């Protein structure tokens, strides 16, 4: 348990350090239009370009993605104005990804990854993969695997620097 707490603190500290020291990126991935899985349109990962972003990459039949999606929804509900939150489908057809959305809350923005996006984040080895971006759209951290709710809340707090996720109860 002590190692787990240390891991949470290290992730939050890494994110905070990256937010403070991250340089601006000219061609940022958060503004690239991706296909919206909920509407027949395209949308950027970060509709609010003045705040940081957290995105979870998912694929069909990923139980850990569904579990982490619940935490993502809680953070969206608590920090929606201070943080862009989205889920990004990957490794399946548009139709399969749309069907998979029944496992995620309707309020979560859902997009489909394309080749440009995957290249910009240097690929995705497994799902869930959580991507943390600063307010300039630069990728700060790519975390492979399920992230415990407390750790994800700490990361959201580190990105926003407002403590908006501190009040979120555990899933």
UniProtKB/TrEMBL annotation:
Record keywords, A-Z: Signal
Signal peptide start-end: 1-26
Top-level taxon of the source organism: Bacteria
Pfam family, one: Thioredoxin_2
Keyword Transmembrane helix: no
Domain Thioredoxin-like fold: from-to ranges: 54-153
UniProt name for this protein: Thioredoxin-like fold domain-containing protein
Organism of derivation: Neiella marina
Lineage, opening ranks: Bacteria, Pseudomonadati, Pseudomonadota, Gammaproteobacteria, Alteromonadales
């Amino acid at each position: 348990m002590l190692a787990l707490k240390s891991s949470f603190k290290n992730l939050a500290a890494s994110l905070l350090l990256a937010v403070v020291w991250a340089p601006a990126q000219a061609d940022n991935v958060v503004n690239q239009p991706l296909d919206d899985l909920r509407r027949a349109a395209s949308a950027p990962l970060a509709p609010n370009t003045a705040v940081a972003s957290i995105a979870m990459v998912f694929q069909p039949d990923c139980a850990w993605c569904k579990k982490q999606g619940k935490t993502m929804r809680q953070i969206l509900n608590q920090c929606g104005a201070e943080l862009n939150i989205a889920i990004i489908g990957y490794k399946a057809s548009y139709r399969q990804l749309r069907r998979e959305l029944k496992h995620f809350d309707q309020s979560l923005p859902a997009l489909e990854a394309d080749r440009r996006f995957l290249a910009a984040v240097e690929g995705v080895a497994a799902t869930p993969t959580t991507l943390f971006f600063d307010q300039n759209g630069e990728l700060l951290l790519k975390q492979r695997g399920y992230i415990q709710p407390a750790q994800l809340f700490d990361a959201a707090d580190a990105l926003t620097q407002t403590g908006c996720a501190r009040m979120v109860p555990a899933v």
